[in-house]
Amino acid sequence: MRGPPGSRIPHATRHPVATRRDNKHPFAYGLLLLLAALFLPPASQADTTSRTPPLPALGESSSRALTIEQERRLGRDALNEIHRKLPVLQDPLSNAYLSGLGEQLLTNTQQHVRFRFEFLIINAPEINAFAAPGGVIAVNTGLIKAANNEAELAAVIAHEIAHVTQRHIARTLDHSAQLGVPSLLVALGAILAGIHDPALGQAALASTIAGNAQSQLNFSRAYEREADEIGMQTLADTGLDPTAMAGFFAELSKRSHTDENTLPSLLLTHPVTSDRIAESSTRSAQYHGDYRRNSLRFSLFKARIIALTEPPEQVIARLTRSPNAAENPAQRYREAIALSRAGRNDEAITLLEALHQAHPKSEMLTISLAQVLTSARRADLAVKLLRHLDALYPEQTLVITSLARALLASGNAKAAYALLTQHMRGRQNRADVLHLLAEAAAASGNSIASHEALAQYYVELGEYTPAAQQIEIALQQHPIDHTTRARLIAEKTRIAQQAKLDAME
């Protein structure tokens, strides 16, 4: 897909769902190595200092080491490398839930949100999450499975959001520069190099921070405290139980003491001491109100993650032995998704229809039923279900894109193209929607619109060469009217200008 683009539409998702990692290092990827090296001490030093320096002023940031625009660009490059090299889960329903939860937290945070956030699910069993520059938040499937409720998952995300809004990467770089360690700027290059070669990335990062471990230790602890405090406030402002943060970290810490060989990765990248847990517990006790801990949406989301990332036969077998599975909507949903993955669509449809009847307004259940109906060559019925859902939740991107896919499967490409074109009018571009638009345009015979949409798709990825190539291909199509040609030429000029600006940063 990254080679010279032609008239053929690339695969419908940037990166397929990955169920097994190629990298034998347990999540020892460049991004995580970089963030751990910048913010955190070696694990052996995690408890060597009892005193923590005062928190930096909330919202304090550095523009000397890394400007806002540089961080945005770095975040986009890191996002592309994550997609290339890490097993990103490409499931629209799961991604929509996580992004929705993240957006709720962003809407309610009291901090200045400078970046356009991206929330990703990494198909990796380690209990971990990390924040990358520019608003990239990644959560492992292992952490999702370990979370007991929505508040615990939200606590981790709120904590990671705080690392970004408080610009901890820029502030660490600035602090390191004051210590006479300009080589830490070189460490930013290891974001990309370390993903390609984890051992090389680790060595490079180790060399850049050598000799300043104690100073970095003090700052990393201050940043963790700051992220805890801000994250907890964000939880409360969102209506989620603020005690979930301390509770989840305490549970993970307890697991680490039970079996030192299975220390959750989250504790390696976010060291948790007894003092930190106690401080979080004391802080959370100051909040009073009727806070939410869980939701049906989270229970279904977690069930879906399990069903998508574990062998379907094993999931089905476990649920068969579970005495309460028939009474638990999440367990029944998990079984339905596993049955569908095993090719047993009729059984899956029976379960999903019953769940949909019990919860007719659930987006996840309705869209899941529509997806399985489409797989069972009953796309017309899927279209009817999704049109009803669109009436309940007008203009929601997840519903619109699901309906467009069902329309494509039913052979109604022109309706899918019209639906997506109307929905995108006046909205910020999204790479996944642009790709689907290109697919719908091609299927409806509009090759110029297809290549133009693909060009916009590549622009969203920051890949200007293939974007310009798509415009060139569009210009070669016949017939082409004067207005369309002028628009395409203007778009080609804009792409070249954007590429030049990015290269100068």
Summarize the structure.
The chain has helices at residues 30-39, 68-85, 92-108, 141-146, 150-165, 168-178, 184-196, 198-209, 213-238, 244-258, 265-269, 274-284, 296-309, 312-321, 329-341, 345-358, 363-375, 379-392, 397-409, 413-424, 431-443, 447-460, 464-475, 482-504, and strands spanning 118-122, 129-132, 136-140. It is mainly α.
Overview of the molecule:
The chain is flat. It has helices at residues 30-39, 68-85, 92-108, 141-146, 150-165, 168-178, 184-196, 198-209, 213-238, 244-258, 265-269, 274-284, 296-309, 312-321, 329-341, 345-358, 363-375, 379-392, 397-409, 413-424, 431-443, 447-460, 464-475, 482-504, and strands at 118-122, 129-132, 136-140. It has 24 helices and three strands. Mean pLDDT is 80; it is low at 1-8, 10-16, 19-63, 181-185, 190-217 and 261-268. Helix content is 64%, strand content 3%. The protein has three domains: 30-42 and 53-284, no CATH class; 295-411, Alpha Horseshoe (Serine Threonine Protein Phosphatase 5, Tetratricopeptide repeat), CATH 1.25.40; 429-505. By secondary structure, the protein is mainly α. Strands 1-3-2 form a three-stranded mixed beta sheet, sandwiched between helices. The chain starts with 29 loop residues before the first helix and ends with a helix.
Radius of gyration: 24 Å
For the termini, the CA-CA separation is 26 Å
Give the biggest beta sheet: 3 strands, mixed
Output the structural class: mainly alpha
User: What is the total number of structural domains?
Assistant: 3
Beta strand %:
under 5%
**Average pLDDT across residues?**
80
The largest sheet has its strands arranged as 1-3-2
Count every beta strand, where a strand is a DSSP E run of 2 or more residues.
3
Helix content: 55-70%
Query: Could you say which overall geometry the principal axes of the C-alpha atoms support?
Result: flat
Query: What is the element string, with H for helices and E for strands?
Result: HHHEEEHHHHHHHHHHHHHHHHHHHHH
Specify the number of helices. Answer: 24
Region (Disordered): 1-21
GO molecular function: metal ion binding; metalloendopeptidase activity
Cofactor: Zn(2+)
Domain Peptidase M48: 93-280
